[in-house]
């Protein structure tokens, strides 16, 4: 049977990883492939939602029937997320957002100078988009979901992060051996602000995506 529990809903999903430019040819980035975010977008569309996918530096084909908005940096992602979230029923931040960006952008390529040490790279903090979205919801009853990769004390760190971010659900991944970036599988625990935790066994990213939407759908007003 086809589940259409997200019909007439607008959901926003971020995917990929931000890139923070140093100069026209260099950036600080991360290894996020965007596959989990794309799985979330595709499964939401399959369940009947109107989907806005905020894609940060991904190289995946656009999922069918999804509005794709391309962004590069955390600042651009923030702008696009606040705009898209204004009328969204749920926002899922699956993108890996750089915590810091270079304090300065060199408009010309940074050059090495013979006999001179390189200048240190100063960093500044990026805005925490998830925390901001959770604190200023587009409309009442909007569900805000975050992701977190943890290496140790997964549940305790996840709970603390959920509280700090103020989101409704936090999908906590244990980063390790077979759970590598870029793969098609994932394993997670989905923590709820209501104290629930839902383990999702090792499996395809689509299955984790559906587990997230099950919990979101149950919380929608
Ligand atoms: O704090 P941490 O980076 O572990 O949190 C991860 C979650 O927060 C992810 O959902 C990510 O998309 C989101 N995030 C964000 N803005 C940042 C950093 C992370 O929205 N600057």
Automatic annotation (TrEMBL):
Keyword hit for Lyase: yes
Keyword Ligase listed: yes
Reactions catalysed: N-[(R)-4-phosphopantothenoyl]-L-cysteine + H(+) = (R)-4'-phosphopantetheine + CO2; (R)-4'-phosphopantothenate + L-cysteine + CTP = N-[(R)-4-phosphopantothenoyl]-L-cysteine + CMP + diphosphate + H(+)
Any one Gene Ontology BP term: coenzyme A biosynthetic process
Binding-site residues, CTP: 99, 109, 127-130, 147, 161, 165
Pathway as given in its UniProt record: Cofactor biosynthesis; coenzyme A biosynthesis; CoA from (R)-pantothenate: step 2/5; Cofactor biosynthesis; coenzyme A biosynthesis; CoA from (R)-pantothenate: step 3/5
Gene Ontology terms, MF aspect: FMN binding; metal ion binding; phosphopantothenate--cysteine ligase activity; phosphopantothenoylcysteine decarboxylase activity
Location of region: Phosphopantothenate--cysteine ligase: 11-221
Key words, A-Z: Decarboxylase, Flavoprotein, FMN, Ligase, Lyase, Magnesium, Metal-binding, Multifunctional enzyme
E.C. number: 4.1.1.36, 6.3.2.5
Annotated GO CC locations: phosphopantothenoylcysteine decarboxylase complex
Annotated DNA/pantothenate metabolism flavoprotein C-terminal domain residues: 6-218
Names of the cofactor(s): FMN; Mg(2+)
Cofactor binding summary note: Binds 1 FMN per subunit.
Protein family (similarity comment): In the C-terminal section; belongs to the PPC synthetase family. In the N-terminal section; belongs to the HFCD (homo-oligomeric flavin containing Cys decarboxylase) superfamily.
Role, per record: Catalyzes two sequential steps in the biosynthesis of coenzyme A. In the first step cysteine is conjugated to 4'-phosphopantothenate to form 4-phosphopantothenoylcysteine. In the second step the latter compound is decarboxylated to form 4'-phosphopantotheine.
Protein name per UniProt: Coenzyme A biosynthesis bifunctional protein CoaBC
Classification of source organism: Bacteria, Bacillati, Actinomycetota, Actinomycetes, Kitasatosporales
Gene: coaBC
Full-protein interval shown: 197 to 417 of 417
């Amino acid at each position: 049977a086809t589940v259409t529990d997200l019909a007439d809903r607008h959901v926003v999903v971020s995917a990929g990883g931000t890139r923070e430019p140093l100069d026209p040819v260099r950036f600080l980035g991360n290894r996020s492939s965007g596959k989990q975010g794309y799985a979330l977008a595709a499964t939401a569309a399959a369940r009947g939602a109107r989907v806005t996918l905020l894609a940060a530096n991904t190289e995946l084909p656009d999922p069918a029937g999804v509005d794709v908005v391309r962004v590069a940096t955390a600042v651009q992602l923030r702008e696009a997320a606040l705009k898209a979230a204004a009328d969204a029923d749920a926002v899922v931040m699956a993108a890996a957002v750089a915590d810091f960006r270079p304090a300065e952008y060199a408009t010309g390529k940074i050059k090495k100078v013979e006999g001179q040490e390189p200048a240190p790279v100063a960093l500044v903090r990026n805005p925490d988009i998830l925390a901001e979205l959770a604190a200023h919801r587009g409309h009442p009853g909007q569900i805000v979901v975050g992701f977190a990769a943890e290496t140790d004390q997964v549940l305790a760190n996840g709970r603390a992060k959920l509280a700090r971010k103020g989101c409704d659900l936090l999908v906590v991944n244990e980063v390790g051996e077979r759970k590598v970036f870029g793969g098609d599988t994932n394993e997670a625990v989905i923590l709820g602000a209501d104290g629930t935790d839902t383990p999702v066994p090792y499996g395809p990213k689509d299955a984790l995506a559906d587990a997230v939407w099950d919990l979101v759908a149950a919380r929608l007003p």
